[in-house]
Amino acid sequence: MLNPLANKEIAIIGYGEVKNVRRSGRSTYDVAAEATSRVLEYTGLSTKDIDGMSTVLPSSEAGNNFWSNYLGDHLGLQTSWTQTTDIGGASMPGNVARAAAAIQSGYCETVLSIAAAVPTTRRVDDQRSYRSEFRNPTGIQGPPGAFGLIMHRYMHEYDLKFEALGKLAVAQRNGALVNDFAVEGLRKPITVDDYLNARMVSTPLRLLDSVMPCDGGNAIIITSTEKAKKLGLKNIAHPISYAELTNFNIHDQLPDITETGFGVAGPQALEKAGMSTDDIDMFHPYDDFLIAEMLQLEQIGFCSRGEGSDFLLSTDISPSGTLPINTGGGQISAGQPGLAGGQLNIIEALRQLFGEATDRQVPNPSTAMCTGIGVIPYVRNWGTSAVLILERG
Amino acid sequence: MAKRDKKPRPAPTPTNITQPFWDGINEHKFLLQYDSVADKYQFYPRGLSVHTGKQDLEWREVSGKGTIYSYTETVIPARGFEGEEPYMIVAVNLEEGVRIMSLLHNCPNESVKIGTPVRLCWDKINDEFEYFAFEPDR
């Protein structure tokens, strides 16, 4: 299988993160500026060293059809390759592959991949098509409602053990407790009973199954491995494989809503890397809802379909365990800064691969799998499934 | 705690693609797009057939009968549904081979099961707009 990332000629050389805050009152540009400043400081680069930029269109700026131009201008970037990706929570892992392709094609050499969103301060998105006509007027509670439908169908087909989801909720919360960038209001310990007794939002989905929206942002710098070596940088992670699938099964008008594009993209990403799930040292899945993580575990192949509950119950998913999952709290316990949340798991994976995760450090990891999920379609599963595998350089 | 103000229930804004569908709903007819080449229906209405990519779709009136594929009881209401919680949303597989989502009426929430036969019913949003919902097909 063709894999342009196989020869490790692309390197991620640093990260910058802004603390997640609810109703920060900040501008999207201010958050982006802080994330940019932090990643430049981390790598020792200046804005003049950046000649490419990739980003995601956040709901706080969605009315601006020149978002890339405004953002690059604000940040003081002169770029020969500029890209806004709008496949939701899959945009930022998707941008790693897009930036790599642009670097390999010679369009640019050093890319700032930046995500910033302040949805709890400002939201100007306006989604038409099926959403305004066939979703909102029904009264379904947005994404929690859609995942409520997925969970009930899963329970009809398979055995869903809520204590397994509770274990995942607790493990991620433990990560948020030691993550200074997590939303402060979420940095309180929880128990499996707290999860089981949490208020229902849209049955059988509970409040503690769900992300909490907040404002925040983050950035990474992607360049050629050659350039990274020239710069003498010590902390390098190579993206070694990527697979993405949008509108899985779109021709089927009665699709199985428990089946997702990860059943294709997961095995593809592993095959491209020449790996099996045993070679993945840590899993940093996109987590809008806990059930989404269980579906990914099953469909990427960490366990069989329907066995996600038993897998979670029998696996140590803590930082010192056999498969650490979302060690920084994930979006569910650290907060979801809108679509900028789609890069938080990459930031956490880099922090771990670079040995900088302090109290939650995974012992000597060399590989990480990060994923992205984009959009809730009309009574289907989710729109985009993306899988990125990173390896320490 | 102060009771939240009820906002207006969101009404669809028809486009040139969906206008025939909403005209049908307002006349209590349930119309689906049908692709005669593929011999298949589709929902939601689109500008072309997802089966063949061709634009020669026809609108056909259908039974509105189907079975519950999945359900979720909404406990925290969506905008415009304040005070109506808990209410039931169902995903229904229609006999014509498409899946549709809406409210379930005339059925106690605790008796909802996957596989239950349902049929389409009407659900007035406001003086101008009719919407569709489901009820048990007894």
Can you characterise this structure?
The complex is a heterodimer of chains A (393) and B (138). Chain A is α/β, with parallel strands linked by helices. Chain A contains 13 helices and 11 strands. With 138 residues, chain B is mainly beta. Chain B has a 5-stranded antiparallel β-sheet with strand order 6-5-4-7-8. Chain B has a 3-stranded antiparallel β-sheet with strand order 2-1-3. In chain B, strand 7 and strand 8 form a beta hairpin. The radius of gyration of chain B is 16 Å and the shape is globular. The A-B interface holds A 128-130, 132-142, 144-145, 148-153, 156, 199-205, 250-251, 253-255, 257, 378-379 and B 9-15, 18, 40-44, 50-51, 69-81, 84, 87, 89, 91, 93, 97-103, 114, 125, 131.
Q: Find the structural class of chain A using helix and strand composition.
A: alpha/beta
Distance between the termini of chain B: 40 Å
Rg calculated over all Cα atoms of chain B:
16 Å
The residue fraction in helices of chain A comes out at 25-40%
Shape of chain B: globular
Helix count from the secondary structure assignment of chain B = 1
**Most extensive interface between two protein chains, with residue counts:** A-B, 38 and 43 residues
Strand content of chain A: 15-25%
pLDDT < 50 stretches of chain A: none
Q: Which residues of chain B sit in consecutive blocks of at least 5 with pLDDT less than 50? A: none
What's the count of strands of chain A?
11
Widest sheet of chain A: strand order? 1-7-4-2-3
Largest sheet report of chain A: 5 strands, mixed
Quaternary structure classification = heterodimer
Number of strands of chain B: 8
Q: Helix share of residues of chain B? A: under 10%
The mean pLDDT of chain B is: 94
Mean pLDDT of chain A: 97
What order do the SSEs of chain A take from the amino end to the carboxyl end, as H and E?
EHEHEHEHHHHEEEHEHEHHHHEE
